[in-house]
Design goal:
111 residues, five-stranded antiparallel sheet, 5 strands, 14% helix, disordered N terminus
Length: 111
């Protein structure tokens, strides 16, 4: 492969172990972290997402009881980059809060 095809191909996210309690999957748009906590003798795996863009999306998912369940939850998330091109979102026109969604016929107007 030449350099152009390598750069145009989207980067697939793969898990790598950074510490004994931290796993990372890095993509072009953001990074997923799985951090393990052992509080009161209970192991919990917390999935966190951090965007690389300034002012981008950052969130923490509910804890999972196992590492495989945490990885599956992260991979099923819409922010997971799997090399597929996401569909374009529908463009919706903003509506005023009090604007009627359809034409309203009034009794005092002639039609």
């Amino acid at each position: 492969m030449n350099e152009e095809t390598m750069q145009s191909a989207p980067m697939q996210m793969k898990w790598r172990r950074e510490k004994s309690t931290r796993h990372i999957a890095e993509g072009a748009e953001g990074v997923f972290y799985i951090e393990e906590s052992r509080r009161f003798g209970v192991r919990r795996f917390w999935v966190k997402y951090r965007s690389k863009k300034a002012g981008g999306k950052c969130f923490t998912m509910p804890p999972s009881g196992s590492l495989s369940a945490a990885k599956m939850a992260a991979e099923e998330n819409p922010y997971w980059e799997d090399g597929q091109i996401p569909p374009e979102p529908k463009k919706e026109e903003p509506k005023h809060a009090f604007a009627p969604s359809r034409e309203v016929k009034r009794w005092d107007m002639k039609y």
